[in-house]
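Slide 14.
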Amino acid sequence: MTKPILVPIGLSGNLVELFESLEAAHEIPAILDDDPRRAGTRFEGVPVLPLARAARFGEARFLCLIGSERSFRVRGRIIADLGLPRERFARVAHPSARVSRMADIGCGTAIYHGVTVTSNARIGDHVLVMPHAILHHDVTIGAHSLVGAGVIVAGGARIGADCYIGSGAAIRNGITIGDGALVGMGAVVVRDVAPGAVVAGNPARPLPRRPAG
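Slide 15: predicted structure.
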């Protein structure tokens, strides 16, 4: 049986963690990356090419794995700049992940190993859910967000688009985290988080802004 063709975007730790399961289920002809220093190199025998080469893979589907606490807010722009229709992006779940049949998972979203997604969770397009995160019932996660390893999101919580939830964070039921917010590692979120805010600690509080200059 012929494997579907998949082209990952971003030679990062996010790809390294998922690569073996991707390779087991797909033919991977190339990895696309925006760092010119990586062009012409190889990872596990797979050539690394510039993002501009996406058009040459006419039969492939794509998966953007770029995303860290420094780059999460530009994921949406990188994906949009590719100019590819929504249906050209793969929806991937590691074989060990447990995803409810009542959950709704968007295009371009990757569910890593050991993740649990329970009933009626709604995960938008191009979301990364890292290892052993738990998303309880009726959770909503907006497009392009990244949910770190071991995060627990309690029932009915809403995470906006373009957010970064650091590893080990816990989010109380019914909480809303606004678009573009960053929740620090291990934070315990018991109050709503404003769009674009950076919060950390237990309980999570906004970090003071650094003075200009």
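Speaker note: The longest strand covers residues 46-50.
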